[in-house]
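Structure request: DNA ligase (ATP), Branchiibius hedensis.
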Amino acid sequence: MRPMLATPGDTVPVGEDWQHEVKWDGMRVLVQVDGDRVRVTSRTERDVTVAFPELARRSSGLPGHDDLLLDGEVVVLTNGAPSFAGIAERFNVTKPADAERLAATAPVTLMAFDLLRVSGHETLTQPLRVRRQLLEATDLASPSVHVPAVFDDGQLLLSATAEQQLEGIVSKRLSSPYRPGTRSPDWRKIVHRRTSSYVVGGWRPETDRAGVLGSLLIGTPSEGGLRYVGRIGSGLAGASGATLLPRLQALEAPTSPFDTRLPAADARGAHWLRPELVVDIEYHTVTSDGRLRQPSWRGARSDLTPEDL
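Returned structure:
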């Protein structure tokens, strides 16, 4: 099953049929308990259980349950605030030993915000109001699982998340059923800076430092290749760039994957790539010619492929 998704919005909906939640800076997952087995799947239905041993262990994850399906986000909290870089590193892990090491140094918390099945009963057709009541009545006491609060005043929550430098809010219609795999207007996300996923089509080294990542050339999939949206350098210094560079080098290709010739200033010294790696980029707005304004790197999305965009 793929999770229900929120539609981007600019204004906070008001009225008694809406509840409002913090938008967590994490990775979306569904967590299923079936007998003694816990399974964690990504937004694209990829099994990522190995990456999160603290959730898979019954003692620390979801003890006391043998039939449960939760929707939520896994987050890594640093000084009480979610760290997207931290969760991106966790999501990329495929080896159990690496996962256990990271679970000890950068443990995740599942922010469980919806209950889709419990004790043999599916709740998908129930309104959110009922699902939320069931979620709050289900004992999820665990060091790795938290049911975040919901709020009546969305505008106040939006202001509070801005002050605390959080990503934004999600507003949900209380009368709405759960629609798997659907981006629905019954859920609306409002963010302080926009974040979208793009495909990397090339990279450039730093000036006079050929072995150091300086910037990425990114685009969106189109019929003729990638449609160029800009060059991203902010956020790639230090460990982020050093960790990413080997992944880029493994994708190098002889020709550009973009559907048009890039500006000479952007293409100079570029290493072209097979368009396979999806990344998240934060930005302010999009210009009239489709370029991102004030873009910055947020992290690689190993849970997504270009076909998902």
